[in-house]
Fold Fe2OG dioxygenase domain-containing protein.
Amino acid sequence: MEKLVSSWFNNKTLPQSYIFPPETRPGNHIIPRSNAIPVIDLGNASAHDRTLVVQQILKASQEFGFFQVINHGVSEDLMNDTMNVFKEFFELPAEDKADLYSEEFNRPCKLYTSSANYDGDKVHLWRDSLRHPCHPLEECIKIWPQKPTRYREIVAAYSIEAKKLGSRILDLISEGLGLDLGYFGDKLSESVVISVNHYPPCPDPSLTLGIAKHCDPSLLTILLQGDVFGLQVLNDSKWIGVEPLHNAFVVNIGHQLEVVSNNRLKGAEHRVVTNSTVARTTAAIFLNPSEDCIVEPAKSLIRADESPAYRAFKFKEFLYNYVTMGGNSEKSLEPFKLHG
Ligand code: OGA
Ligand code: NI
């Protein structure tokens, strides 16, 4: 528990164990927030506009692997309540969080710091994180935090809405790819996990990272980023800052969608930089396949002159390799690639 950045960071200089090597640290050149990542209006409901929205999502998913959505149907009140309850969680006194702290890899609901393997880290990450499953709700809500008192009620409502939004976006993606309606609806997106990240103000943002460069292991990720900047996406070997937009969600393509789409969609690499003035809290909802779900390139997407880029695998096989490779984006899919 003393390892949590939020429990010791005040008035300290950056410890050596948080300093990234020169090639991977952000450095003094501050990458500005930018409007390059497409913002897609989901409020357009008519048939004509639906086609347009599908095209916008596909284009953004091919070019960036990232987009933001507005008019997405999740209420502003629920988004604000959710962000506030997460901030309140991290502000609770240590004794109210102690039971949740764990360095055990497989503990389903846990508060931890840096990565899932603190002792194995080459460099520690400047973040604390609360992580737990959200589906099926009746079963997993019992292991969620009990404080703040409204945590369970608010996060239950939020996770249902976020999953609905994710499913809607997956339907638009399957339409754009030409897959059967509901292709992603069942096992491929059955598991829902939330990861709440808390990045305290940092004494030297040029030397460290909140999260190092990675691509999400998920099918699709829906991020509530709040109004503090910190997320950067790698595009054409350049980092692009993702502008925090009020009431928007950031959506990104995970490794599993890269596989199912046979590389038509891009699972983009991203990272989180820190800042020296304000704490930043974000919440990522990962829509994941169930552990035994078979993931493979969709057969209808393989043209006659093409071959599948990946062999079929169970999601848990992928996860095992992802963790072993420490989230390294090039190596995570390597054992499943078909060359030829
Ligand atoms: C993640 C992630 C981005 C952020 O949790 O995988 O990339 O801005 N988070 O917190
Ligand atoms: Ni991520």
